[in-house]
Write a structure and sequence with these properties.
globular
Length: 312
């Protein structure tokens, strides 16, 4: 019988259900989740390696924003390289071999703890980097940006340090992870609010600039304001896509975790929604580089040059 101190969310569900059919479907959900997470891992690794290679190949003028983008790509790379394989392995062990869990519980707990710690740490750094990037865009468009090349590098290093406390908390919790999840949710909400506020300030700048362009229609200098406005519109469109991606990938985890801890009896539906939200968390590591390759011309051209080098 499973010790209460080593009870995972899968074991909690099984212990609260008496139906063998529910147990089978739970393992099927875990198996499907492990396959999807494992499949997303190489996508995240390759895509973020392309981003990093395109930025550091020096084919274009790098800005402080590119330094922050490098930090984001590095975090997502580590998520795909370390966290996703370990997390997928844990779910695969549970869904396929109960014997391994019974015979080597310490090993399974260790793998799960390392996988969850790595996931929480790297995803924490990812959402913090996204928030910092949103603030940088706001300050840049308001002509008040203080981020330089060196301060950008320092900012990335500071963000990397923020993952360490989450790892320590997760390890000290042994096998439970409740405090870690609650802290993780608090960080997601905090960064989400910061990102929303930065988007709102950028929207105000866009509106002000638009009014200035309209006021200048009585003069003969139409070209430059129109070009600037088009550039700013493209920038805000990119930020909106970032916000949408943030919402799609991270908000479901907040909702599903609230359901997970809010119900007195674990159900298959609650477990399924929780696992789906975890898939969306990991999906962000693959979608982030795709978004920047699509929306940033210099990154896109850099990736194309890398592709041409490999092709020829």
């Amino acid at each position: 019988m499973t010790n209460n101190t080593t009870l995972s969310c899968e074991e909690r569900l099984v212990s609260l259900t008496t139906s063998n059919d529910d147990d089978f479907r739970t393992k099927q959900v875990s198996l499907s989740t492990s396959i999807i997470v494992a499949a997303l891992s190489p996508v995240a690794v390759v895509a973020n390696l392309l981003i990093l290679a395109a930025i550091w190949k020096r084919n274009f003028l790098r800005t402080p924003f590119h330094i922050l983008l490098s930090g984001l790509a590095f975090n997502d790379l580590c998520t795909g390289l370390v966290a996703q394989p370990l997390y997928a392995a844990t779910l695969l062990i549970y869904s396929i071999s109960s014997t391994v869990i019974c015979q080597t519980p310490a090993l399974v707990i260790t793998i799960r703890t390392i996988g969850e710690s790595a996931a929480v740490a790297f995803i924490t750094m990812t959402i913090l980097t996204i928030a910092v990037m949103s603030i940088e865009r706001w300050l840049h468009m308001s002509r008040r940006s203080l981020i330089t090349w060196h301060s950008g590098c320092l900012t990335v290093l500071i963000v990397l340090l923020f993952g360490i406390p989450m790892v320590v908390v997760r390890i000290l919790e042994n096998n439970h992870g409740r405090t870690t999840r609650l802290l993780f949710i608090a960080q997601i909400l905090f960064c989400y609010l910061i990102t929303l506020y930065a988007h709102f300030k950028v929207y105000q700048i866009i509106r002000l600039h638009k009014h200035q362009v309209q006021a200048s229609t009585t003069s003969h200098n139409f070209g430059q304001p129109a070009i600037d406005l088009a550039k700013y519109k493209k920038s805000i469109a990119t930020m909106i896509y970032i916000l949408l991606l943030f919402s799609i990938c991270f908000v479901p985890y907040i909702i599903s975790t609230a359901m997970y801890y809010g119900v007195s009896r674990m159900t298959l539906e609650t477990y399924f929604s929780f696992r789906v939200s975890v898939v969306f968390l990991f999906l962000s590591s693959s979608l982030n580089p795709a978004l920047y390759i699509w929306r940033m011309r210099d990154i896109r051209h850099g990736v194309k040059q890398l592709r041409d080098c490999f092709v020829f």
